[in-house]
């Protein structure tokens, strides 16, 4: 008998690669007591190649790698939608889970908004966002301790990408569960070095009124640094428990 499958996509961010999500994938393999997974590589033209194996269990793991390390979130989101559609044609699933780091987290939110409008695309069920620059990056549309969140979570200033997500918030699925992880080095910047807490938390204002469940998870200390956050043992345990 064919079981319902819920593939889990692991998506890196700006200037990232397979090394970014390596520990996330290894941790998930160990948690699920398996050894094999599929790697989907998307080249600079958006063409997809596969290596590894799509497993036949409930949660096939798919590591997503963009050869163009400096593409923006909009193109990344479009190529993610193309990938999900391609996988659906081969493996026939309707729902998937996803874990995104940094710009990959932003791209997954944008992809989910596309999926609500394009009914032939599978839908995200469990979504993990790690250090997402939803409302600017420090030095690029954001500065430490300048933007503030109101009591209702609304940011005082909205970046163009954030404004686009806010305007299209009606396309957010009300069946989605979201875990939002962000870091704070507890220094003057209130950031993970690159992403301010305000920028990472600003997604709450868009998603939390719409989704089935929204969980905030702040991380403090040296492991809260942007490039270390996805390797922290407590973060890995929390992600696996949330996703699987």
Q: Can you describe what's shown?
A:
With 244 residues, this protein is an alpha/beta fold. 30% of the residues lie in helices and 23% in strands. The chain has seven helices and ten strands. The chain has an eight-stranded mixed beta sheet with strand order 3-2-4-1-5-6-9-10, sandwiched between helices. A hairpin with a 5-residue loop joins strand 2 and strand 3 (48-52). The protein starts with 7 loop residues before the first strand and ends with a helix. The relative contact order is 0.15. The mean pLDDT is 95.
Tell me the structural class.
alpha/beta
Q: Whole-number average pLDDT?
A: 95
N to C succession of SSEs: EHEEEHEHEEEHEHHEH
Instruction: Calculate the terminal CA-CA distance, rounded to whole Å.
Output: 21 Å
Give the biggest sheet.
Answer: 8 strands, mixed
**Shape field:** globular
Number of helical segments with 4 or more residues: 7
Helix residue percentage = 25-40%
Compute the gyration radius: what is it?
17 Å
Number of strands: 10
Low-confidence stretches: none
Across the major sheet, the strand order is 3-2-4-1-5-6-9-10
Question: What share of residues are in beta strands?
Answer: 15-25%
